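pinning this so it doesn't scroll away 📌
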Amino acid sequence: MAGTWFHLTSSFLIVYYVIGFLISTVVAENHQRPPTVLPLSLSSRNHSLHRHVDNLRRRLFQSKLSGSTPNARLRLYDDLLSNGYHTARLWIGSPPQEFALIVDTGSTVTYVPCSSCSHCGNHQDSRFQPEMSSTYQPLKCNPSCNCDDEQKQCTYHRWYAEMSSSSGVLGEDLVSFGNESELMPQRAVFGCENVETGDLYNQRADGIMGLGRGRLSIMDQLVDKGVIGDSFSLCYGGMDVDGGAMVLGKITPPPDMVFSHSDPFRSPYYNIEMKEIHVAGKRLELPDGAFDGRHGTVLDSGTTYAYFRQDAFAAFRDAILSAVHFLKRIPGPDPNYNDICFTGAGRDVSQLPKIFPQVEMVFNNGKKLLLSPENYLFRVIDPPPKFCMLNEQNESLAGIVVQNTLVTYDRGNDGIGFLKTNCSELWRRIQFSGAPAPTPLVSPSKDTKMEIPFVLSPSGSPSNVLPGSFHVGFITFDMSISTTDSNLKSILKELTELISEELEVDNSQVRLLNVTSQEKDYLVRWGIFPAEPANYISNTIAKSIILLLRDHRIQLPERFGNYKLMEWNAEPQRKLTSWQHRFLIMLVGSVTTLILSLSAIGIWLVHRQRQQTAYEPVGDSIPERYLQPLQS
């Protein structure tokens, strides 16, 4: 019996390995088709009278425009805690050169490092090369600008409160807003940096996108051309969440958006008119004019934290401390700053409203803006985990106050609107005005191995990124990472989750395929696979993923070190040829017949073995030869 089962098991294993070999041969032959491989191409303050004249002229001009001007819709990257800023992507020149620029409502000039810069840091992208752009023109010296020593070209100079500075020459070139923007590329004046100091020198971002009030502001230039409405909107992701969205141009304000008046003649900065603050439902006792400083209460997207006047901040701080007196206070992460930190509140940001008080900002018109704890706290991950509040004062409100808040700067109507929302998800929900979609200027780099025409379809996705009739089986891409963190396994696990969020796919679809290392540098290959139970990625999803990879739109926090996307591959869906299909059917039929035959033989052998076995009837007498006499 044991021998029979041994032979049956051996036969089955032989058949199993034969089947595996034949199927792997078929698949291997089918894999010989090469994938589609593409590399990733991826100053002075204006006088009040001048501002007044410009404002009147702009409003008269805007009143003559039709109501359906296009918008420039841009995705925001980076986060306030890790970077201290949010960035947007702009492309300058012909062919376009890409830059990551800090979104700054307090700046009035857009500038990038110039190839001729004598003192510029190492930033995220290459420096702008005017000589490589066929559409670049220097802004010639004229009576309305400051000029260089040779009196040939206009110059700019900007100084910032943190003691950094930027200076250079002014030029004009085509500025593009990306493949998902309705707005056609526009000529605009920008700064080409020759010298940068302080934080501007050390930061990872390339430069500044100036959205403030001023003739050199990118907003003023676009509005003066009549290509967008006199409004823009920003929406920053929540605590420890990257990204968000920005729209240059008018959007329809949601019904629940609350507005404050913003006086353009009081200050060159965007300001709001605050009346009072409530903490845990109680109005803070403040002296008259607590929010009535020289510039009003300034809203500055280029600043990380929130600041108030000393007396207003002291009252606000004391009210928060009183509400969370049961939490333990510990020193902040940086001994150079007197931050107020709390431990014992856990790690979950969503639970903060159950511990920390609710805050309301009340405007002069009686409207209220609700602030959650993430709008006045920042989290420190280093053990022990803690939430902190800045212990400084000033007269501006910054990025942290408007996290997860859609802020509309309605310059045409002198108002700033606020709406609490999930800014990380807003990118997918922004509505367009219905203007026709242009053919974008942004194109792949010159080293692309395969030319694929690229046109923006009305839906906002590339209509022919994939050549011909092409079903994508899976997508791979390589990422170069340089990090000092020794816990690579933990980094890769977190990267998998972040990549799935950036590409807007399920976690199960993102798989780590391979890792090669050399000291602290790693080359990681990732795969994006179809969602179960599909056996290929739909064209819509594939185009979206490829667009994000192609335009370098995967942005990860700096805590992962330096990283760079290398190239992506779109593997076709595996389809068997007709002869392979027939062969596989015959193979499956033969294997099925063989298994059934072996099973039948096995059953017959077992039955035969049982019939040959002799049994003694119960109760029969035992033959005497088996009986042994008892020993006495």
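📌 and the second one:
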Amino acid sequence: MQGQAYSRLGSFGGSAGTPSPPPPPSPARGGGRRTPGKGASSARGSHEAAAASAAAAAAGWGAAARRAAWALLAALLRRQAVFLFAPLLYVAAMLLYMGSLPLDVVPRIITRSAPGSVYRSPQLYARLRADMDADNSTDALATVWRQTYKGGAWRPCISNVTNSLPESNGYIYVEANGGLNQQRTSICNAVAIAGFLNATLIIPNFHFHSIWKDPSKFSDIYDEDHFVKRLQNDVRIVDKAPDFIMERFGHNITNVFNFKIKAWSPIKYYKDVVLPKLVEERFIRISPFANRLSFDAPPVVQRLRCLANFEALKFANPIASLSETLISRMRAKSAESNGKYIAVHLRFEEDMVAFSCCVYDGGDEEKREMDTAREIGWKGKFTKRGRVIRPGVIRMNGKCPLTPLEVGLMLRGMGFNNKTAIFLASGKIYRSEKTMAPLLEMFPLLQTKETLASDEELAPFKDFSSRMAAIDYSVCAYSEVFVTTQGGNFPHFLMGHRRYLYGGHSKTIKPDKRRLAILFDNPRIGWKSLKRHLLNMRAHSDAKGVEMKRPNESIYTFPCPDCMCRVNRTAHSKPIHAR
């Protein structure tokens, strides 16, 4: 037994030369687990071997996939093709997504029109009318024009000349095309060019236009004797070319050499090109002639333009006499404001609305009428292939003519109450019975030349658009406030004439129509907020009314102070004498 004990001791402890087996596991580490038997140990070994084999295989496949991915990415980067594959992958994903949507369900897309792109003024008027009628205490005529001219002593660029005229270089005949004020531009430019070239000007001929359809001659609209007399020290003017000149051309004006001059040509062109031909032929004509001289011209040319426009051109006695009568009647109807009245130039005739391509609230009927008017007035101009008309963009850019309703909203917002007398200068208003009703509700004292004058008084002028426009021009010129609602020659000439009459101040309200489009299209704006914006707009017009002439602006709109029109000693500063 002792040997057996030693034998057990040796088998557990071992000798120094023989390695002994590891000690049994501690109960604390073993968790009290029983040592598995021989069969369980064998089974666990086989499972561990299988798992190790599977893990090795998975690791091999993962490594292979990573190597393949890196190889593919390296190849793509080397060829920079990744930038081509990325959009294709995005499109493929979107197609897969869209293919997964059911075909019987259509997504709802909500679109909102841009602010100021839709005509919603009638809805605004209906919503604000009660507040507007309750706010009728202000009187803008009592507070308007706080600004004064700040450019020093106002001296228009007109000075009298007593020098005798040198021998003429020849005769110039021009055809003035367009309406009243476009013809006026032609007349004044013709005077300036004839004076500069030292030529004799034949009284301009008015070209009959298919739109205005007015056969009036110069003497039907202007006082011809006054025109010739006022310019006698500056330009020779005759009513026709002498017979000895006309004999050379068979007494046929079409045989006379005609210059086709580009619009806004500089005065240098007339000196270098027109003058030699004038001296050679002794008689030339220029047709058409509207806007054929640049605004930027030497002082001697600008002075002649001013002299012709503001002094020499007086309306013929029948027009002037009726105009004075209407001005007196207008002042009588505005007795509550000491004879002061507003003049509004409204451009809402059918042809103006059609040309603008704007959309209002007339629906399909309006569209048919406007399409017809455009085709009659401008055949094919608006239906050319590739032409895109965007009414919303036109309105947002402030290019749409203001309706009578919008004019009323604007003026009431600017502080003019319903007792303000208004003279409306306009042609035949489009759908006047419907469109004029809101304006008359807001301003019941509104007048036109047709309401101020009797049928008998208007009869000599009624079939002549230029003569009717001349009456409007005269009544507007002497108003306390002139309101322009659309661009054009009429307001530009009138603003300049009013500056000439009122010591440099045009006394004109020229609204910001882009801003108006946004204000009138705002469904949440209240009356007080609208009025605040419009009063600021009026104040801005007041401040702009005293501006001096800027470069390349019309001398007819900005009659220069004396400091702008001093004759300098540069080239082209003196008229050209006979050769």
